[in-house]
Design goal:
The structure is a single chain. The protein has 754 residues and is an alpha+beta fold. It is built from 16 helices and 37 strands. Strands 6, 7, 8, 9, 11, 12, 14, 15, 19 and 20 form a ten-stranded antiparallel sheet that branches. A seven-stranded parallel sheet has the order 28-27-26-23-22-21-29. Strands 5, 10, 13, 16, 17 and 18 form a six-stranded antiparallel sheet that branches. β11 and β12 form a beta hairpin. α8 packs parallel to α9 (497-515) and α11 (550-560) runs parallel beside α12.
Amino acid sequence: MIEALSKSIFHLSTDNTSYIIRILETGHAEHIYYGRKLRDAAAAVPGLGEKRYARPGMGTYTDRDFTTLVLDDAKLEFSAEGRGDYRTPLVAVSAGKDGERTLDLKYAGNSIDKGIMRIKGLPIPQAKDPYNEAETLSLTFIDTARHIELVLRYTVFPSTDTITRRSFLKNTSDERITIRALASSQLDFRETGMKAVTFSGTWGREFEKNVTVMESGTFVSESRCLGSSAEANPAFLIQRKDGSAYALNLIYSGPHRESVSVTEHGITHIVWGINPDMFSWVLDTGEEFETPEAVMTFSEKGLEEAGDRMKIFITTSILRSQWKERMRPLMLDTWEAVRYAVQENRIEEIAKAAEEMDFDGLLINDGWFGARNNDRTSLGDWHVNTQKIPSGLTELADSIHRRGLLFGLWFEPEAISTKSMLYKAHPEWIIGRDGETNAEGRHEALLDITRFDVQDWIVSTIVRLAELVRLDYLRWDINRHYSDIYSLTGIRDYGMYAHEYASSLYRILSQIGERCPEMYIETSAGGGARFDLGMLSVSASITPSCVSDPIERARIIKNAGLMYPLSVIGTVISPSPNWATRRIVDRETRFNIAAFGVLSYSLDPTALSRSEKKAFKEQIEFYKTFRLLFETGRFRVVEDGNRLIWTVANEDRSTILMLYLQKMIRPNTTAEVLVVPDANESYNYRVFSRSHMIPEREVYAYPEESECYEIPGDALKWGGISMVEQISGIGHHEGMRMLGDYSSRLYIIRRIEK
């Protein structure tokens, strides 16, 4: 928890980590240590604290009594401008009429409080028993000349080895100030050569993993859009040269920046939070601003365990919908079946097939509302198209409910078509000066959701419809980035807009969730353009990409699964060849990949042959049997050249599922070995392949192999199974494996009870 070791030293401890802060004689906050839990933190501080006998050349000191303290060559809890610290600042302001930029913030006091302190308008983590499971340290710093107050707030979650941090700035002067930068957190290390692991991309290519070795200079990962990603996800990791690692994130859905610098003095300086290029905030006298919360966790065992600790924290403290501890519903999406051509009789046919195949629910995608026959019209007209659905949405929903299916609808509430009834009624509701000259994306304008009347309209429209049809499942989508920021709300500074937008989005989704607590909310933003902890605070899961190609999704799941639990990663099985890549991937491999996460299907079940329907139904049965494991099991990835191996394991390792994905078939291959690092050494296991239905035309040529092995757990973990050879060009023998390009097997590994 939080312990004041003295008036100037603070120890933040979790079950397995320690974080130590020391207030220097000059009033600055020094970062002493963050790592494995220390046995005696008080005894460690004199040795860990830096000694200063000489001032670096050209160094600027801020206190004539301590001339060897140069802020640019110190590990600090925050950097500011104007007093000799030339690194990326955590806080930067323009103060007074002249816009003075110097800040001289000195320590003024602290408080230690039980529980979690609230942030106005932003989501925060939760704890089952907030008063007893969390503590918050507030360190206050004041610039007495400029009358500006900075508070650093640290909240400790001991059982999940997590510390969250945020910054609070208050204007106590008589003049207006403008915040030019205010990040959520900063970490300084006297070490170079650390690795920064970040996730970048774009639409369709989300979560591309990057590893940057930091020897010198500055590396920046950032979003400059209204959303948090896919260009740069706010989750990132830092790995030290000894292999230990920090998993870091931000509870925010707006533009963010992660900056990692190596200074000329050998300090690795990490600052992350709101992107300062997309932000400025005006504070009049007495006003204050608080940043979104940063999340930090550490493991001396490396990236995997650090990521695991982050995932546990997400599951226990970020997710908060009624579905948090329930199995996610397996939905059938109508998009691939009908696109915009929604018709009542077709939906009824699809619902009948969905019932027969044992889906949990049916999601009616785009095309059910207004005059929506393409993407050029009707966004905002959220009333049923009675030409397409003559009986009305309530009757259709009742029919689907009678089949025992959940009823879901797709919405894009933040967008508006200029060809819509809503735009005619409220042209002043859009972002921009007018709908004719604004830039557009996907033929859409955006609603100015910072307006309270727009917020009320969105909430009331969705809630009223949800209550009318007993809506069980809502997919919240947005399919463009912002442009032409202009609002009639009289905003003081347009640097405030992106943050106001994110806060407004949380307000809307929170109200919908509160008024429809049983409804499952899945968020999407052209796929993964808002895959972040902020959205997970107001939804149950997120679509990571619009592209459903299974090989692209395998990369996305693999990388996202390092920092996010599978229970929040939406997956999908769609027809092959894939619409986006034209890649052909067999039916069973599409399932084997998509099973790792929150599974859904987007296809036309009425167009399937009897054998195809049987195969898909068997997939659904298998998934439901192992759904708890797929969504909550410990996820591991091994990438070994031409093959990708995933495992999910339950807590006691009595059941493990393994994906074996072959990228390309190669001739003249021989034996392969499969090692299972998560196997329990004291168990004996049976390892066998899930029966995969081979298309009838291929059965004669390539009969299904029958693999089954029994092996002690220690041998499985350290030696592995030598697999039967693949067919590789020199004849075929019964029992051999046959895997083509982008082909896979899913293995069930179960403890043999003695």
